[in-house]
Amino acid sequence: MAERLLIMRHGEAAAGRPDAERELTPHGVEEARRMGRWLAAREDLDLPRLRLLASPYVRARQTAAWIAEPLGLEVEPLPLITPDDPPEAVVEWLLGEPDDRPLMLVSHMPLVAALTGLLVEGRGDRGPGFPTAAVAELEAEIRAAGCARLARFTAPVDLN
Questions:
Q1: For 12, phi and psi rounded to 5 degrees?
Q2: Is the pTM of this model over 0.85?
Q3: More exposed terminus of the chain, fewer Cβ within 10 Å: N or C?
Q4: Is residue 160's pLDDT more than 80?
Q5: For 123, which DSSP code?
Q6: What local confidence, expressed as pLDDT, does residue 91 receive?
Q7: How far apart (Å, rounded) are the C-alpha atoms in residues 46 and 143?
Q8: What b/e sequence results for 62-86 when a residue is b if at least 16 CB atoms lie within 10 Å of its CB, and e otherwise?
């Protein structure tokens, strides 16, 4: 059976340096909260078994915390999903992980687009544009390049 893989871009973040310490803006917090409430209301996802992983960058951890709260989940750090990490390394990691439960990765552009493109199209340059706090939902029997199907793509502006 195909498991879900959700790939999410963090909410809107304030400008500044160092990049790893940028925080969510108030708008970014609201985006993340809205997406967390939307996910919590979903009955088609195996939410109690969802494994939630986030980039160690502050804005991604903050976004993941707003997702985790209504779902009652813990956030696991995943150092290899920062903005400039190669999507191929993430696919290698995915292949080494048990595929018996859904996963959600909270990360950054350009990685989220490149990873989605690599998993669905087999090419990292074919990924969709990701508005802040958008979620790509992929289904795959095996989490490998070119083996996933984009089941749904949702951004905060899509929710009423």
A1: -55, 130
A2: yes
A3: C
A4: no
A5: -
A6: 97
A7: 17
A8: bbbbbbbebbebebeebeebbbebe
